[in-house]
Amino acid sequence: MTSRTMHRATKIACAIVPLLLLILSSLSPLLISGNNTQSYLEKETDIAQSSGNNSWMGETQPWGQYARTPTHNGTMPPHGPDGGPGEGSVDGVSVYASIDSPIVNWVGFDDGVDAYGSIIADFSQSITSTSAALERCGQGELFGVTVSKDGGESILTILSGDDAKTAWEVNLGQTNDIRSTPIVHDIDDDGKPEIIVVYDTSSALQIEMWSPELSCSESGWQKTGHSNEKLWSYSDSEYRIGISSPHTPSSQTNHLAVTQPLLADLELDGNPELVLAVVDEGSDDPTVLSFDLTTSVPSEAEWVISLDRGTHPSDPTWAALDSTTTAIVLTTIDSNSGNMWVWRIDGASGSLDWERVAVQGTDSDSDSPRLRLPGPVIVQLDNDDAPEMILTVPTDSNGATSGNGARYIGMELTSTSEVFNFRAQNGYADTQPLPIDTSGDGIHDRLCWVTWYSESSISFNRKGMVGCHDISLSTPLKEWSRDLQRGNGNDNDEIGVSSPIWMDINGDDEPEILVAFGQRLWGFDGETGASADINDAWSSPLTMPHRVWASPAVADMDGDGTLDILIGDILVSQSAADFAPLADQRGISFNPAEPDPGQQVTITGQFSNIGTIENDDDLDVVLLLNGNEIVRERFDDVEPVSPSGEGGPLTFSTVITAELGIHNVTMLLDVNGNISEAREDNNIATTQLAIVEPYVARIDLPIETPRISPGTTELVAIEVLAIGSTTADWSLTWDDSALPPGWSFTLDNGADTHPTLAPDNPVVIGFNVGIPNDALGDANSYVDFTLTLDEDTTIITEIQMPIEVLRTRGLSVTGPAGLGTSDGYGRVQGVANAWMVVENLGNAQESTTSIDWTAPSWGGSPSLHDSNGDEIFALTLNPKEDVELFAHLDVPSTVNRGSTTSTTLTLCIGSGSETLCQDLEIYFTAVDSIVTPIHTRSLPNTTLSWDITADLPLSGTLQWNMVDAQMIQTNWQWSASGNLVINGSNLELIGSSNGVGVGTLSLQLPTNTVPYRHVFSTNDESENHSNLTFSLQVLQIYRSHATLLEPLPQSEGESVSMNVTEPQNIRLRLENPGNGEDEFLLSALAKPLSAQEDTPPVNFVFISQEQRTLGPLAYTIATVEVTLGAEVPAQTPFELEFRWTSLGDLSVYDTVTLLVEAEPDHRWDLNITSGVEYLVLPDEKVNIDFAVKNTGNANDTLRVIPSYSHTYFGLDSSIWDTPMFYGDELAVNQSAMYSFNVSVPSTAWAESIAHMQFGIYSNDIWIQDIMLNLTVLHESGWRFNLANTSLTIDPAGQNLTLTVDQLGNAPTAPYFAKAGAGWNITYPESSEIVQPLESTSVTVFVIPPEGAVAGEIGILKLRISDADGSGSTIQEIPVRVGDAPNLTIAHKGIWKINDQGGMPTAWVENVGNDVAVLQLGISGLPSGWIVEGPSQMVIAPNQIIGIPLSLLPSEDWTGQRFIASLEITHPILGLQLHEIEIEKGTLAFESSPVAHAASGTRVSIFMNTNITENSISSELNFEVIDNSITIEMAGERGESILISAGDASETLSLYLAGYLLPNVVVNCNLESAAFSMLGLQPLEGRVGECSITAAEEAVQATLILVSNTGERIDLVSNSILLGSMENDSFEINVSDWTPDAGVIEVEAMVIDSYGRILDSQSLSTVARSSGWNIGISTFSVNDEGELEVSVLRSGYEILADVTCRIQFESLDSTWSATQIVDVVTPDYTPTFVMKATEGISDAEDDISEYRLEATLSCDSPYDIDDIDEDDSATARFTPKSDSIVEQSDVFISILVASVLLVIAFFAGAFTQKTQGKTTEKKPTVKSIPAVSTKETEDTQEEEDEFSFVFDEEPREEVEEVAIVEVPAEEVIIDLDEEVDSSPSGRLAALRTEMDDDGGKNLSREERMNRFFADK
Question: Which of 139, 523, 733, 1809 has the fewest CB atoms within 10 Å, counting from its CB?
Answer without folding.
Answer: 733
